[in-house]
Design goal:
heterodimer, A: mainly beta, 7-stranded mixed beta sheet, 4-stranded antiparallel beta sheet, 11 strands, 0% helix, globular, B: mainly beta
Chain lengths: 114, 114
């Protein structure tokens, strides 16, 4: 049982390049999330999805786009990378919203923009 | 909107000593409360959570946290720590309704010295 899997794990981008982070979960979860983690700031929500075909903005959505074409996948895109997007990105999923359902996290994707 | 403050960015303790990691939150609505642990180069794992009922919640590895509504706190404690507890600990809250978007504190790095 893989849980939440993120690819790639590491990536170096030049300013202005684009890339997509892929998140896959095998737990049949409805809800999926993308967070970024920066030193001294904890994790901040970028975008989330409450089901296939839906997306919504989180706390820090600027510069990112997402898509949820299939229930098990949640893609995070950077159209024109900036150094401020250097961070560790975590995907997460949960069975549903509310009720305090456990949110499961992937192992992270380290992105450096030079 | 919610916010979470972890009062200590780093906590060094000796092995087998007790430890308390402090967490205070602010919210205009009722929330669920969580503690997550992040071991080096890994994703976050749920340690324990408070949803309702008894204000004292426990984890399987000896940690406990107490919800104090009047002080809006959810401090994490362990009576005797081990080297393996070395990690970063994040306190988080989520609205009891809606998409369960976690709001994290800044994190506390727990270092256990032999």
């Amino acid at each position: 049982n893989a849980g939440v899997t993120q690819t790639p794990k590491f990536r170096v981008l030049k300013t202005g390049q684009s890339m997509t982070l892929l998140c896959a979960q095998d737990m049949n979860h409805e809800y999926m999330y993308w967070y970024r983690q920066d030193p001294g700031m904890g994790l901040r929500l970028i975008h989330y999805s409450v089901g296939e075909g839906t997306t919504a903005k989180g706390e820090v959505p600027d510069g990112y786009n997402v898509s949820r074409l299939k229930k098990q996948n949640f893609l995070l895109g950077l159209e024109s990378a900036a150094p401020s997007q250097t961070s560790v990105y975590f995907c997460a999923s949960s069975l549903s919203g509310g009720s305090g359902n456990t949110i499961y996290f992937g192992e992270g994707s380290w992105l450096t923009v030079v | 909107a919610q916010s979470v403050t972890q009062l200590d960015s780093q906590v060094p303790v000796f092995e087998e000593a007790p430890v308390e990691l402090r967490c205070n939150y602010s919210s205009s609505v009722s929330v669920y409360l969580f503690w997550y642990v992040q071991y080096p180069n890994q994703g976050l794992q749920l340690l324990l959570k408070y949803l309702s009922g008894s204000t004292l919640v426990e984890s399987i590895n000896g940690f406990e946290a107490e919800f104090n509504k009047s002080q809006t706190s959810f401090h994490l404690r362990k009576p005797s720590v081990h080297i393996s507890d070395t990690a970063e600990y994040f306190c988080a809250v989520s609205d009891i309704q809606g998409a369960q978007k976690l709001v994290f504190g800044q994190g506390t790095r727990l270092t256990i010295n032999p």
